[in-house]
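U., I forgot to send this yesterday:
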Amino acid sequence: MHDLALELGMTTGNLSTQMTEGEFQRWIKYYNKKPFGADRDNYHTALICSLLVNINRGKGQPAAKVADFMHRDVSEIRKTNIQQTMAALNARAKK
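Result:
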């Protein structure tokens, strides 16, 4: 929820009062198709780093992976995002 608020230039309080549950769900679906924000920037940087290392690696050296250069592993990012989203949805459902 915080990432979306940051991207939209809103506080989380504003976001939770101004956005409907349906719109929030559509944002989640959109993010799952096309991630944005710092996590996506991290992925792009890691991709470039792995490419540069692989271009310049010596013969017989193992290839670098994008995950080798990620601040966090992609699966960890998705898991964290899903957990945060579910927590936000559960909190909204209890209101």
